[in-house]
Amino acid sequence: MNKLPVQPKKRIELLDVFRGFAVFGIFVVNIEIMNCVFMNQDVFSKQWTDPIDTLTTRIFQLFFYSKFFPIFSFLFGLGISMQALSMSQKNELTFSFFARRMLILFFFGVLHILLLWSGDVIHLYAILGLFVTLLIKKSNRLIIGLSVLFLIFPFYDQIAAYAFQLMKYQPESYLSGYMPETIVETIRNGSYVDGIRLRANEYMANIPMLFTFLAPVALSMFLLGLYFGKNSLITKMNVLVDLLKKPVIIIAIITNLYRIIFLFFLPGFEIYKSPVARPVFLKLMFLSDVVMGLFYLWLLAWLWYHTNARKIISPLKYVGRMALTNYIMHSFIGLLLFSSIGFSLYETMSPSETLFTALVVFCVQILYSKLWLRYFKFGPLEWVWRCFTYKKLLPMKK
């Protein structure tokens, strides 16, 4: 039997709004990293002392850092489960289908790393997504239990670090030939091939962080999304929003108070430097950021169902329907802005300038996505992904 993708008319608008919002938040964080690689961030950030840049940095810390990756991951797991549920109802659910779908996504991620930006996450999503598909038919208790375990398990990073030691993996060796000034020169004035070489080395250097810090978060959120999709909770959001209102607000207040204490008060105390207490403080901060990300989704849903703000946030759905295309487009724009094939602005933009650029680019993406979807069923990369997944040339025009 021929498998066909979910048609646009069956889409849940709020889910696309969620995706559009996640794409925006990820770009706000990523463009700052594109402007200065991780290894240079500490020195680079100290030069921006203007009040507007200080305020922007606080906005990043309070509202963006570590909050949108969990959202994006949750939505990815939710998407997998909703498609699996739809296929299961038609007796079309097979592991080979999802294996092929994840393999294609993995290749997208590899090309993204080499050609555009080393900070890709979709290849990681492909690897973890393949594991998650094995759990689709498992019990709700197991799925939610694993989600909580991967999120709060306190020794995962030590185990992962030990595994890298056993493999004798030395991430620092990949960037040993790159001094800070060498990186600046390579990105601003080097050839495109030099950029590919740097991106490959930077990715290899970041692998421990990718699989030690980001992977468990992504997997936890995948499983939470799987739970939501498997139980069709996304179609009951109007009920859940009201049902969860009180506990969600209380938890959001508590976690935000902790985040403010951690960022602005705790570093002044000696206990903050304690080798025993500091990991606990960091873990609590990380959990608070994840909670804040999920709170954003609840808040968007509440605005969607209960206020006139629905008209304001509704345009996010256009970007959300083309999430993969717009996510990759961000890296292409970053390449043009910061590298030698474009404007060579690497390490020249202040925090306020990167935030402003992200806002402008995203507004353009809303308009572009709306115009594109007026004539086509899918975004260009979404269409390519579907064609390879279903092994047929699918109609694109409406």
TrEMBL record:
Please give the Pfam families that the UniProt record associates with this protein: DUF418 (PF04235)
- Alphabetized UniProt keyword annotations: Membrane, Transmembrane, Transmembrane helix
Residue ranges annotated for the DUF418 domain, each copy included: 229-392
State which residue ranges cross the membrane.
21-40, 60-85, 97-115, 143-164, 207-228, 248-269, 281-304, 324-343, 355-373
Question: Which InterPro entries would you find in this protein's record?
Answer: Bact_Transport_Assoc, DUF418
Q: Which domain of life does the UniProt lineage start with? A: Bacteria
Record-given protein name? DUF418 domain-containing protein
Source organism of the structure: Aquimarina gracilis
**Higher taxonomy:** Bacteria, Pseudomonadati, Bacteroidota, Flavobacteriia, Flavobacteriales
